[in-house]
Amino acid sequence: MHFKYTEWNKKHSGPDGKSPFDTLWDLFQELLTIAGGDVSQALRWLNQLDEEYQITDGFEEDFGIGDFIEEMQERGYIRYDDEQQVMVPTAKTDRSIRRKSLEEIFTQLSKGGQGEHKTPFSGKGLERQPETRSWRPGDDASHIDSSGTMLNMLKHSSLDKFDLREDDLEVYNTDHYTSVSTVLLIDLSHSMILYGEDRITPAKKVAMALSELIMNNYAKDSLDIVAFGNGAWEIEVKDLPYLKVGPYHTNTLHALQKARHILQRKKFSNKQIFMITDGKPSCMHEGGRLYKNSFGLDRKIVNKVLDEAVKCKRDRIPITTFMIARDPYLQNFVRDLTEANSGRAYYSSLNDLGGYIFEDYIRNRRKNVK
């Protein structure tokens, strides 16, 4: 595990003038996410960082790591589990980490790194467009275009009398946000931490941010999360911060099957699958055993995955793949998967992942009302 820090600013209680507790709390949440929910491990790392960078020495008040641990307990962020005999995070911590992830994603979007991302803070149901059309019964009166309506009326009115007719009314076209059911697939195969690059932490943060956005802004939407390695299994939102990569192969087939079966039970007109992965499909269940091949793309596995992508297409379930790897060999597979499903694919860096997913989610919620 490696950390990189710039020089600590000791002129304030903490960076940006935060209190000692808030400064350490921000850092602890990051470490806890990387540690997969292991409070003891996160605290050991925190002590190591304090020893190396003298973080607590920079506080204007006398506040040490022991004070921080005690205050976390008092505030209800961690508690002692008698059964496991260890400190564990509470639901309050789960919510705080999700909110922090959401704030981080939106901070990145507001910087405009991609140049085309829209920040969907408003949560409104309708967005006005510049195009207009003739009014029809049932249209919202608040969408009437006063300028266009006035010009139509003046064409047949005189100086003595303004004659407004029903066919003079012009209304704006709008984008309408519809409810959508999403299944987010997260790859937990071993390659997500290979080559000295932590890919799972950014993936978890994006999943937490997306779940927080949906729960707070789009209550009518649904989000199910499926982790996959040798197999695929559903997880709860509260488990997201503490997912860990395992010694797994990549069972993309089972992940897509699980997602499709979940969506088949949903009574939504709009359904979609988001898949975050960095690797090729390398295993599948066959005849009660795990058929696996990590040495290149196995056509037997790939063909089954492509067949499943076609089944999703028949069920009107688009698959959007977020490939966080630059290997052209793997990109060819993703291209075939996308073509089979008529879906979408993004080959994104870890820094861009959040922006791409949020942009795509909002786009898929919106349809044009003519």
TrEMBL record:
<feature type="domain" description="VWFA">
    <location>
        <begin position="182"/>
        <end position="280"/>
    </location>
</feature>
<feature type="region of interest" description="Disordered">
    <location>
        <begin position="108"/>
        <end position="144"/>
    </location>
</feature>
<dbReference type="InterPro" id="IPR036465">
    <property type="entry name" value="vWFA_dom_sf"/>
</dbReference>
<dbReference type="Pfam" id="PF13519">
    <property type="entry name" value="VWA_2"/>
</dbReference>
<protein>
    <recommendedName>
        <fullName>VWFA domain-containing protein</fullName>
    </recommendedName>
</protein>
<feature type="compositionally biased region" description="Basic and acidic residues">
    <location>
        <begin position="114"/>
        <end position="143"/>
    </location>
</feature>
<dbReference type="InterPro" id="IPR002035">
    <property type="entry name" value="VWF_A"/>
</dbReference>
